[in-house]
Amino acid sequence: MATVEIIQADITTLTVDAVVNAANSALAGGGGVDGAIHRAAGPILDQECRTIRQTRYRSGLPTGAAVATSAGNMPAKWVIHTVGPVWDNSGTQDGLLGTCYTNSINVADEIGATSIAFPTISAGVFAYPLERATRVAVETCLNARPDVVRTILLVAFSAKAERAYNKALKELKG
């Protein structure tokens, strides 16, 4: 069983096996954590993402799916890209958001990663409410049963996000 830890940090600087990228479907880099990861990893990441788009995901990476690349210049070994749902006020997307975490952990298992660091998927430009996004993340990761992954880091981008993660953890652990 994996341990779930919450930290506030710059995800691009973490020494873990895999860092998860809250990607866009084109795997093209963008704003927020996606842009930061692409900048930190360097041109090799763009090249690998282009190859994936040209060979495996010509129509773009589907929401909830996950795929791995190398981490380029970052201290991590791999980047696992996943596309979170865009918030639409329906309240029906929590399962899809949870799938991003589950599929990323499954990919981490497949590549042999023992540690994985997640940003708060969909809580940036995809406008998912922070408290809801952190609760889905904590709940999904607590319920995960990976074979290889031993450490799951939920990386807060701000003190507010860290508080939201800790609140969810406290509520879910009782």
TrEMBL record:
InterPro entries named in the record: Macro_dom, Macro_dom-like
Domain Macro residue range list: 1-173
Cited Pfam families: Macro
UniProt xrefs under PROSITE patterns: MACRO
Top-rank taxon, per record: Bacteria
Annotated protein name in UniProt: RNase III inhibitor
UniProt source species: Acidipropionibacterium acidipropionici
